[in-house]
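Subject: design request, 352 residues
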């Protein structure tokens, strides 16, 4: 039986294979094959649902079948994210059977295919047609959202988050000024890198949240994916984006970098710097993007100046400069997310 070669026909009509029985079993275990996907032997066209083959039927539980039926039946009905009830669901996890917004789903790539992965359980997600970003009407203009970006960090519980981040970075800066042995200095450096990585991941979350139309700061990311995923990977993603933008694309680096940051945040992958994504996107909404770039570098400049010009107020100047620096970074990320939110149909990054 293991020598049989199989062909697979997915719900979209695409045919894959041939693949051996062991590979089919592996794909079922990874939720890449659903109960209703069609399968036939390599030398025939006798297509049947994979769940109807005795050698594979036992690999599907009743829960798996129910989840698959739910996604097919309810795909066009608007749903809310299980983690953020105030947000429209972006996709449905085929493993845990829950609906999630775009901020809770990771976009990844395999060869030329795009896959959506649940950040909670790691299962494969299927996009909901009703919340496909390329099909949702935009009621707000980019210009209005851009101006509101300057009050965005204070909305909801944003002021608390802003003050909390300021205190953490202020404390780290204060401790770094204290005399200590070299081992303690190395330990402090590691903590600094972890905090910076976590802050970068949070800034990416701000972009994704704003790109989803949210008008308040998102919740800080948890550590469910592991410390490395939440700290080291964001640093490498941002560092890689900067290096690629200002070396390979040096002649256009000034306009390339902001779109690359937006793309890497949205796709949650360094592959977002791909010029096949960036360059067409720049020309699809040039007026709005030019203004977004202008404000991007303006806020970068103001953030830098706030660090250079320390304000000596009761010895708390370093906290005030940290506060303004973090505030303007949040404004930058919100502007990028708002650009995507209002221009997503033109960009067409997540067509299903």
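Subject: RE: design request

Done. Sequence follows.
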């Amino acid at each position: 039986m293991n020598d049989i070669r199989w062909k697979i026909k997915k719900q979209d009509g695409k045919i894959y294979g041939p693949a051996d029985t062991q590979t089919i079993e592996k794909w079922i275990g990874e939720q890449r094959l659903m109960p209703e996907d069609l399968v036939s032997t390599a030398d025939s066209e006798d297509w049947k649902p994979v769940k109807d083959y005795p050698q594979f039927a036992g690999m599907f539980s009743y829960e798996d079948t129910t989840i698959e039926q739910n996604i097919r039946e309810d795909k066009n009905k608007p749903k809310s994210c299980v983690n953020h009830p105030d947000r429209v669901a972006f996709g449905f996890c085929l493993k845990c059977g829950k609906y999630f917004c775009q901020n809770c789903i990771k976009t990844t790539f395999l060869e030329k295919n795009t896959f959506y992965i649940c950040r909670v359980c790691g299962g494969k997600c299927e996009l909901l047609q009703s919340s496909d970003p390329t099909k949702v009407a935009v009621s707000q203009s980019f210009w209005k959202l851009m101006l509101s970006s300057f009050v965005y960090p204070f909305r909801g519980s944003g002021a608390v988050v802003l003050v909390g981040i300021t205190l953490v970075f202020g404390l780290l800066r204060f401790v770094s000024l204290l005399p200590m042995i070299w081992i303690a200095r190395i330990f402090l450096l590691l903590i600094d890198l972890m905090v910076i990585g976590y802050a970068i991941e949070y800034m990416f979350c701000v972009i994704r949240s704003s790109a989803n139309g949210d008008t308040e700061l998102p919740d800080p990311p948890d550590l469910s994916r592991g410390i490395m995923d939440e700290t080291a990977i964001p640093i490498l993603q941002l560092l890689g984006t900067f290096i690629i933008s200002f070396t390979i694309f040096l002649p256009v680096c000034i306009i390339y970098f902001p779109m690359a940051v937006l793309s890497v945040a949205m796709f949650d992958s360094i592959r977002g710097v791909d010029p096949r994504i960036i360059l067409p996107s720049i020309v699809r909404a040039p007026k709005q993007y030019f203004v977004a770039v202008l404000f991007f570098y303006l806020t970068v400049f103001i953030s830098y100046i706030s660090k250079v010009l320390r304000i000596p107020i009761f010895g708390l100047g370093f906290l005030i400069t940290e506060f303004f620096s973090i505030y303007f970074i949040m404004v930058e990320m919100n502007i990028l997310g708002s650009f995507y939110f209002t221009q997503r149909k033109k960009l067409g990054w997540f067509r299903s």
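The longest strand covers residues 15-20.
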